[in-house]
Amino acid sequence: MLHRVRKQRLKSITILPSLITILNGVAGFAAIAFAAKATKAAFAMAGYMVLLAMIADVLDGRLARISKSTSSFGGQLDSLCDIISFGVAPAFLMLKVLEYKLGFAELSGPFENLLQRFIWLVAAAYLCCAAIRLARFNVENEEDESAHMSFIGLPSPAAAGVIVSLVIFHQETLSELSVKSSQLYLICEKTITYTLPFVTLAIAVLMVSRIRYPHIINQYMKGKKPFAYLIICMFVIWLVIWFRQIALATGFCAFAASGFVKWFYYRVIRRKIDLAPQPEPVTHNI
Number of helices and strands (H, E) in the chain? Predict the structure, then answer.
C-alpha cells in the first residue's frame, strides 16, 4: 500500500533577509554578465560584483539571526544564490580571463585544444567542488550560532575571493606597474596568468577537504576582546581602503593557505617529531 507524503506548504517568509540573499544571487549573475564582455574593465567589475555578493552573504545570515527568523527556506535560498555567486561566477571569470590573455584564437594545432580543455576542466572541477561544499554544509550545519566557530573545508566565499582578488589585482594594479617597470610587469603578469588555473584547482580541492578553517567573525570579532583587537581591525580596514587590490589578494590567499599550512604542520611535521625515537637519558655511575 502506497502512502502519500503530504508536502508542507510554505506559509510565510522573512522579507529583508530574503531580499539581501537574492541580492547575492543577482550580484553573481551580474559578475557573469560582466565577465562575458571580455575586457579588462569588465573583468575587474565582475570581481567586484562577487565581492558585493560576499557582503550580502554575510548580512543576510546576520539579519536573520538578529531578528530570530532563521528558516530552512532561507538556508536553501542562500545555497542556491551561493552556487551562482561563488561557484559559477568565479569559474566563468577565470575561464574568460585566461581565454582573453592566452588568445586561443591566435593558437593553432593540438596545443590549443589541450590548453582549452584543461582550463575548461579546471573551471568545471571548481564548480563541482563548490556545489559539493555547499551541499555538505547544508547537511552538517548546526543552527546553533555558538557552534559556528570553524568551517570544515575552505568556505566557498573565501575560495571565490582568491580567484576574484587575483583577477582584480591582475587587471588593475599590474596596469599601473607596467608604467613603472615593464620587466617586473611581464614577470608578474605571466606568473598570475599561468598559475591561475592551478590555484583554482587547489582551492577547489580545499573546499571539499576536511581541513578546518576559522570563522573570522565569530572567533575574532564577536564578544568582548582586548583593546588591541580594535587597533588591528582599524589597521586592516586602512590597508583595504588604501591598498585595495594588494590587500584583498594577500588576505584571501593567506586565509586559504593558512588552513593547509596548519594541517600540514600538525599532521606531517609534528607527527614525525612525536614519533621520532627519543634518546635515552645518560646515567653516570659514581
Answer: 12, 2
Read off φ and ψ for residue 150, nearest 5 degrees.
-155, 165
From first to last of its 286 residues, the chain has per-residue pLDDT tens of: 445 545 666 666 677 888 999 999 999 999 999 999 988 889 999 999 999 999 999 888 788 777 776 777 888 889 999 999 999 999 999 999 998 888 764 555 555 678 888 999 999 999 999 999 999 988 887 665 555 677 888 999 999 999 999 999 988 887 666 666 677 777 888 888 889 999 999 999 999 999 989 887 776 666 677 777 778 888 888 887 888 888 899 999 999 999 899 888 887 776 666 565 655 555 555 4
Please check whether residue 284 lies inside any domain of the structure: no
End-to-end CA distance of the chain: 90
Is 243 within a domain?
yes
Could you tell me if residue 8 is inside a domain? no
What is the CATH number for 137? 1.20.120.1760
Between CA 202 and CA 66 the distance in angstroms is 36
Place of cell 572541477: 125
